[in-house]
Structure formats: structure tokens, C-alpha cells
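We modelled each protein-ligand pair independently. The example shown here corresponds to the adenosine-5'-triphosphate entry; the chain sequence is given first, followed by the ligand as SMILES.
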Amino acid sequence: MENAVQSLDGGGVFCEPCALAIGIFDAVHKGHQHVLNAAKDFAAKNGAKAFVLTFYPHPSKVLGGEKAGGCPLIYPADVRAELLLDFGMDGVFFKDFTPEFASKTPEEFFGFLMEKFPNLKCVATGENFRFGVRASADVKVLKELAGGSGVETISVCGVLDGGNFVSSTRLRKALQDGDMQSFYEMSGRNYFCRGRVEGGRKLGRTIGFPTLNLKAFGECKPKFGVYASRLQNLDTKEIFCGVSNVGVNPTVGECAPVLETNTFDFPDFGEGANIKVELLKFLRGEKKFASINDLKAQIAVDKENANKFFRVCGC
Ligand SMILES: Cc1cc2nc3c(=O)[nH]c(=O)nc-3n(C[C@H](O)[C@H](O)[C@H](O)COP(=O)(O)O)c2cc1C
Ligand SMILES: Nc1ncnc2c1ncn2[C@@H]1O[C@H](COP(=O)(O)OP(=O)(O)OP(=O)(O)O)[C@@H](O)[C@H]1O
């Protein structure tokens, strides 16, 4: 396939034999990985492609979940697609989740799959997968509909962590609580933010702590505060340990949420560099200090605390 990430909203029809994993896959956690592996295994054994059908925005935005605001996505859609391709999927297909799409009957939903993927061989989901108007259909209905078209269905059993199902909802909670260890355990990777370094007010260098700034968060932001972090220049692959603040800088006048990283060896790149910052351990909450000097003194303590973390855990 020429472009591994495609929209299903144009007139395109994808004729390759394929296994299709279906879901939102926000943060591609360990439960999602189980579903993706099922699609990959089927595809490998049957000479098919392993594709993903995913949706944007989160269906809860349309269906009115989480107090009608919808579930905030952990990662932007381009990062989700990248995680899915990195996991070894052959293609990622996005469908606009509109009220009209949400109102499809289970039969219409399955008809849509067959229209877009006429050579569909297998649909892989979790056992808790629901679809069709008002999420009325489950994997049993999917099996019946698919069976009629000679399509196999695989519904993998739920992956647990600490006795509960791993879910993007739990990952969002971990992120909002600053519980980076749980985020790591459930997703299999550290939370990260990636994008181009953006200019700040250039105050950091005047107080002895220059920072590289990113604003490319998903909708769900990490708990505001200070973290031991690891920064990678995605162009040169160099890695730096450091300390990051996520927040709005209340001490120096509020700004839009920003992730600022002060690395221990200040690298020789700046605005426009393509970087990734992983948040490894929450150290403290963001505070409004009485003076810049108090903030400076605290950042020195933060750096020492981050250093202690790296001495134990490595960078
Ligand atoms: C490790 C670290 C901790 C920080 N903690 C706070 C804080 O608790 N409160 C706050 O208002 N700003 C905090 N900041 C943000 C500073 O206010 C900000 O880096 C400084 O004003 C420079 O901003 P600039 O990048 O726009 O130049 C922190 C920054 C770093 C690097
Ligand atoms: N813990 C899990 N174990 C196995 N499969 C899962 C698990 N969680 C989700 N799935 C399956 O992975 C696919 C994508 O899941 P989806 O992202 O829609 O749900 P989720 O992770 O529970 O998200 P949310 O918490 O936002 O509802 C679906 O087919 C779903 O059934």
C-alpha cells in the first residue's frame, strides 16, 4: 500500500485480502496489543495484510460520554497511527466518527466493512467490543454477521493489570494522577510527547535553567508538575536525561499548557528540532512561587531529585 495511513471517508475501496483489528486504540496499550497480535497472526498464516480500523474523534464525543465532553484522547491521531505502524500493522484506516456513522445498525456497520474491504478475511476485536447504533451489538452478533460472508472473527480475552481490565480510561486516570509507573505497566511504554521545539519567553536561560518546549499534547494532559524525563532528538537519535515541568507557569504569569525540559547536558539544538520527551517519574506538583528566586531554588532541588532517580534507574 502506497500510504500506510488512509481515511475511509473518501471513495477508496481496499481490495487486498486482510485481517482487520477494530477499535480506538488510544495509546495502544497491552489489551490493544493482544487484539493487534491476533490480526497479525491471522494475516501471517493466511497471506493477508494486517490492517486497523480506527475512529476519530473518540465516539464518546458524539455519543455524549464523560459528562458530554467525551473522553479526552491521550495521543493525537498521528501519534496513534505511528504507534500502530511501529507495532507492525500494515495499514491504519481512520473513519470519521459522525452522528450518522454512529446510527448505523449492526448490519449496516458490517456492510460498510465489506464495502470498504471486499476481501476481508478476519475481524479481530476484544471480547468486550460493541458496535452499531447505541452500541447495541456485541461479538456474538459480529460472529453471526461475519459468518454469513465467510469472514472469520477473533475476539481475544481481556488483558488484566492488577485484577482489572487494562483500558485507555485507566491510562487516562494514571496520566492525570501522575502515576507514570502504572501508565508504563499498562501500555508497555513510557508516556511521551513529541513534536518540534517551540519558542518560549526565553526567561529560563536568564534564571539558569534553559528549557526545550513542546506543546503537542493529546487532549488528555499529564498531571501538572515536575517529572524526571528523557529527551531524544529524533533526527540525531541523541538521548539526554533531564527534568521537565508540565504546566502553565503560574509564577511568571500563566501561559498555555507547555512541557518544558531542562536537560542535564544542554544540547546544541533549539527551536524547530524534532524531539520526543518521555515522562518517567512524577516528582512534585506545579506551584506558584512568591518570587523567581524561590522558583530557581526549587528547580535546583528538582534537578537533584531527578538525578537521584537516574542514579537508581539509569537514563
Ligand atoms: C524543573 C522545572 C520546574 C518548574 N516548576 C515550576 C513551578 O513549580 N511553577 C512555575 O510557575 N513554573 C515552573 N517552571 C517553569 C518556569 O517558570 C519556566 O521554565 C520559566 O519561566 C522559563 O520559561 P520560558 O521557557 O518561557 O523561558 C519550572 C520549570 C522547570 C524546568
Ligand atoms: N484489556 C483488553 N484486553 C483485550 N482487548 C481489549 C482490552 N481493552 C480493549 N480491548 C479491545 O481492543 C480494541 C480497541 O479498544 P478501545 O480502544 O476501543 O477500548 P479501550 O481501551 O477499553 O478504551 P476506552 O477505555 O476509551 O473505552 C477493541 O476491539 C476492544 O475490545
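The radius of gyration is 22 Å.
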